[in-house]
Amino acid sequence: MAEYDYDVLVIGAGPGGYVAAIRAAQLGLKTACAEGRETLGGTCLNVGCIPSKAMLHASEFFNAATNGTMAEMGIEVEPKLNLDKMHEQRRDAVKSLTGGIQFLFKKNKVDWKKGYATFQDAHTVKIGDETVTAKDIIIATGSSVTPLPGVEIDNDNHVVVDSTGALELPAVPKKMVVIGGGVIGLEMGSVWCRLGAEVIVVEYLDKLLPGMDDDVRKEAAKIFKKQGMELRLSTKVTGVSVEGKKATLTLEPSAGGESETLEADCVLVSIGRKPNTDGLGLDKIGLETNKRGQIDIDHDFRTKVDGVWAIGDVVPGPMLAHKAEDEGIACAENVAGLTGIVNHDLIPGVVYTWPEFAGVGLTQDEAIEKMGGDKTKIKVGKFPMMANSRAKTNHEPDGFVKIIAEAESDRVLGVWAIASVAGTMIQQATQAMEFGATSEDIAYTCHAHPTHSEAIKEAAMGVQGKPIHI
Ligand code: FAD
Ligand code: NAI
């Protein structure tokens, strides 16, 4: 009889966990995956990447019809919002994709153990009434919303909501206050702004989108203001009270000072996410979380407990689905005795607003810091989308591409893009950087015309000092 029920048990079926489980099974390991939700796919497929993109895509069409962009192209329509239908197509997308994972589990013979898993020891977990043993266990429990002290989220009341509640609003709020000008705040704020809400973003820092290049962050403020959002930067929310369907927020300058109040029909709390480890029974296996609540791992995704591995949002690094997926594949390969690697220096990040904001590698400040603070050791090329023929033709003038390269070697250190399709464009930059490209390599690579990607070539020519179209 086998010593364990399974070779591998994965806890959590988000993009990290379900991908790890499928990869482990593909590699011939007997695999099970515990998931407490009713459907597979984790945060990403159920309440994250996919439903938010369904709402962003649909609301952008509505916006193009209402803000005059379509009319500029000779399409005159009188748009009418059918929000129920918009929600329905979002739910359909989620249903079909989560069902797709269930199909892939069956196809690859991954057993789904429905329920929340708790460690009994390093090779044993309880899932409901069932006890399951496995030689190796991969923790992929993901993350959930960071609460704001003193602010109670009640998604069912639709007044103070998190991202999950913001996806499900039954009506367009008249006035929405977004707490946190990060990725979720700007994506979900964009959805409701496009559908007619007055949106006010309250951000603690002096710029939006922490982690992105400074030029991108500055431009973001201009673009979202132009789109009608009100930005309250360097401001913090100190309290929210709710009476019926109205919220009253108390705000004050981040640095301290006089407070003021603001009324809203809806408040979105989007100040970050925290790793999910509650109820996992980490104490039973002698595993502690770090100061940020994350599970520390080594280069190969091993925790300090033999046979226990961890990936995705629950470990350090950007909380992104593609990072979790890549870690899932690499971790399963390591469990199987192969060599699985993720290049954590090149994880692209994309904000799926209009235009999209994307980046990979170092920001300009990080690059200078890497060069010991010597600005002359980097070169920067920038090209405006206004001068890109395709963007101009498509009525998409906002944005730019910026390439940062090491002056001596010309090796590309970072690429930043604001463009309607920046999320797609950043992929070519990621690939080029993965292959160690110089800006000259990119500048002398033939780019199809007319495409937005030509702006990457021109920015690379800018690093070389010789762009053509500006
Ligand atoms: P998760 O997807 O969080 O999955 C973990 C799963 O584990 C959950 O289903 C949970 O139920 C389950 N679980 C937890 N504990 C247990 C337990 N003890 N037993 C059994 N099961 C358990 N990222 C992008 O890259 N692109 C995007 O466009 C994007 N959009 C987003 C939009 C929103 C609104 C949000 C909230 C997030 C978005 N993200 C996006 C982030 C992305 O969703 C996460 O980075 C990704 O889902 C992390 O994957 P994961 O597998 O680590 O965890
Ligand atoms: P975030 O970290 O992107 O942004 C949170 C923002 O809130 C920061 O700008 C922070 O300064 C601000 N903030 C914190 N406390 C505040 C306070 N008290 N008052 C005002 N502002 C405050 O976190 P967010 O937007 O919640 O997203 C969580 C995670 O989900 C991100 O790490 C992101 O990686 C992931 N995600 C990714 C998406 C994508 O890839 N397109 C889309 C949505 C989420």
Automatic annotation (TrEMBL):
Residues 347-460 form the Pyridine nucleotide-disulphide oxidoreductase dimerisation domain. It is an enzyme of class 1 (oxidoreductase). Pfam families: Pyr_redox_2 (PF07992), Pyr_redox_dim (PF02852). GO terms for molecular function: dihydrolipoyl dehydrogenase (NADH) activity. The keyword Flavoprotein applies. Its cofactor is FAD. The active site is a redox-active disulfide bond. Belongs to the class-I pyridine nucleotide-disulfide oxidoreductase family. This is Dihydrolipoyl dehydrogenase. The gene is lpdA.
